[in-house]
Amino acid sequence: MAADDKHDAAMKDATEAVNDIMVQYQKMGLNALTLMGGDLAERMSDMGAEMLDFFTKRVKADVELQHKLLHCRDLNEMQHLQAEYMQLAINHYTEESSKMFEMGTAFWMNGLSSLPPKK
Q1: Which domain holds residue 52?
Q2: Residue 115 CA: distances (Å) to CA of 15, 52, 88, 100, 106
Q3: Residue 118 lies in a domain
Q4: What is the DSSP string of 25-66?
Q5: Considering the domain boundaries, does residue 117 fall inside one?
Q6: Under DSSP, is residue 89 helix (H, G, I), strand (E, B) or coil?
Q7: Phi, psi (degrees; rounded to nearest 5) at 2
Q8: 64 is a domain residue
Q9: What whole-number distance in Å separates Cα of residue 99 and Cα of residue 73?
């Protein structure tokens, strides 16, 4: 068997193995989702949307800083812009971590009560 054929066979075997593992994980995950119910799935979706909003806000702040830095006229202005940016980042991350903590607490505390009782 040529080296290319051995490589192709090994890649096929590896791909099939990974595919089998992913199928098993999906089956396990889908069963877990049926136990969670719509309320927990909705809370997870809300948390994901909140994180995406946060990432969008941070990227926008990054782009705005770069634009301002390109147009600043002296070193003092640059330092001022960077200080403002750092304070804004600290505020954003502090605010977001509080939101995510609250959402996570509600998810686990309120969400667990919606799970069906164990049989």
Answers
A1: 3-112
A2: 36, 27, 39, 22, 14
A3: no
A4: HHHHHHHHHHHHHHHHHHHHHHHHHHHHHHHHHHHHHHHHHH
A5: no
A6: helix
A7: -75, 160
A8: yes
A9: 38
- Please check whether residue 105 lies inside any domain of the structure: yes
Number of domains in the chain: 1
Residue 35, sorted as left (phi over 0), alpha (psi -120 to 50) or beta, turns out to be alpha
Read off the DSSP letter of residue 98. Answer: H
Place of tokens 């080296």: 3
pLDDT in tens, the chain (119 residues): 566 777 677 777 777 777 776 677 667 665 665 555 667 778 888 888 999 999 999 999 999 999 999 999 999 999 999 999 999 999 999 999 999 998 888 877 765 555 445 45
Longest CA–CA span in the chain (Å) reads 70
- Cβ-count burial of 20 within 10 angstroms (0-12 exposed, 13-18 middle, 19+ buried)? exposed
Burial class (CB in 10 A: 0-12, 13-18, 19+), 27: exposed
Asked if residues 36 and 86 have their Cβ atoms less than 8 Å apart, the reply is no
